């Protein structure tokens, strides 16, 4: 097994090769030279750049959508169009290529409704969405996103209704025809305790997500994931890979906030320890068009993933801080590496989000306790994490 570019965690299981995830030519060349049977494409950027297309043209089995299908994430306007045509519930919206008109619309919606969502129609590493409260914030959000995207070809902004409710993440694995739906998860996006501070790529997650029973999950699987897959196939853009739906569970039922074209992070770190079958079986079924024959079994347990990040993330942060992970952590605890590397024989930080500390328990409270116990034993100078992952969901019967 090879990983590109990899980190200190996966290096314990695979040979890491120093090829950037966006180096399409380099990745395609290496896959050909190494005679790789299958390639799993993780990040959204190489998918949007057409890595899956290149690899498939070389004869490799590929887990991940084509560039055309990856637009479900790389273009929020395209995704909203798919939702409309498929009858998938979502927030009302308008698309603008003129920042001045977008600002007018955002201010008007915020003046009328109190809040508005402003989205950049492009990949932005989880930082292209602003929930603005009031007209002044709405105008500033448009100005900020427009400034950050200045000079980009095809610049567009989406001005969207702000939905009320609680969020959940659902991931389905598709072969372009059918979908196997994984256990729902709940992400914590904000940087600091109490859901305050800037948005991040995710500071932690729990699974299963509270508030989603079997009937609702089946409804989401059929009316959201499968509906999107079938609509895209009907339009000649089949989606094969991991389809991630970010949802708001409103008083009127689930509504889609966004789609992603890959496994969500850190939701996947919370989901995987609960998966009762080998993930590779589902990946192979996706690659070979037989997902309809598969079923994902899950353990009757709960998991919590807490992200340990570099101090300063998601703003400016340093790297190279030494990390010490004890070797005697409990069996039900898994440390997922993100921004790590080996320097002079030592494990050090190499990114903003550094570790995903995940634990499984019979309840959310037990899995939280085990995850935070592990964090107390990890030495990471200058690292920080939220202390309230899994708390404050605010649902009836919440396990605190």
Tell me the layout of helices and strands:
Blueprint lengths: L1 E2 L11 E2 L7 H10 L4 E3 L3 H5 L2 H7 L3 E3 L7 H4 L1 H11 L6 E4 L2 H15 L1 E6 L8 E5 L1 H14 L8 E4 L5 E10 L3 E3 L4 E2 L2 E3 L3 E4 L4 E4 L6 H21 L5 E11 L2 E8 L6 H5 L7 H9 L14 E9 L12 E2 L8 E5 L2 E4 L2 E4 L3 E9 L2 H14 L1 E2 L2 E2 L16
Parallel strand pairs: 1-2, 3-4
Antiparallel strand pairs: 5-8, 6-7, 6-8, 9-10, 9-15, 11-14, 12-13, 14-17, 15-16, 17-22, 17-24, 18-23, 19-22, 20-21
Helix pairs in contact: 5-8, 6-7
CATH class of the largest domain: Alpha Beta
Percent range of helical residues? 25-40%
- Global mean pLDDT: 93
Number of domains: 4
Morphology: globular
Question: Which structural category do the helix and sheet elements fall into?
Answer: alpha+beta
Tell me the radius of gyration: 21 Å
CATH superfamily of the largest domain: ATP-grasp fold, B domain
Characterization of this structure:
It is a single chain. The chain is α+β, with helices and mostly antiparallel strands and 400 residues long. It has eleven helices and 24 strands. The protein folds into four domains: 2-68, Rossmann fold (3-Layer(aba) Sandwich); 92-160, Dna Ligase, domain 1 (2-Layer Sandwich); 166-293, D-amino Acid Aminotransferase, Chain A, domain 1; 302-384, Glycinamide Ribonucleotide Synthetase, Chain A, domain 4 (Alpha-Beta Complex), CATH 3.90.600. The strands form eight sheets. Strands 11, 14, 17, 19, 22 and 24 form a six-stranded antiparallel sheet that branches. Strands 5-8-6-7 form a four-stranded antiparallel sheet, sandwiched between helices. The two termini are 40 Å apart.
